[in-house]
Description:
With 92 residues, the protein is mainly alpha-helical. The protein has helices spanning 2-8, 17-22, 35-40, 85-91; strands spanning 66-67, 72-73.
Amino acid sequence: MLQNLRNLMTRVCVDMRAANQAIVRERHPMPTVDEIPVDLNGSKYLSKLDLNQLEIDEESRSITTFTSHIVLKRYRRLNFGVSCASEVFQSA
């Protein structure tokens, strides 16, 4: 049954270079390895954030439109192919 499910799944590989030219990047500096322990000092709770939880604004989704062999599609959630994904993820 698992093999049949794998046959139904489709992997999509999208070239985001044209979309990345239209994106205005946020400047959010990434912390260095030395800064992270200092920032976490005294923390009581740690959590994990999944990038799939970050939705793209409705007006920005048109930038991520791509074509498949059947229909035009667009991303609803932030993916790693988008140039500003790391900054948006870091700020979240």
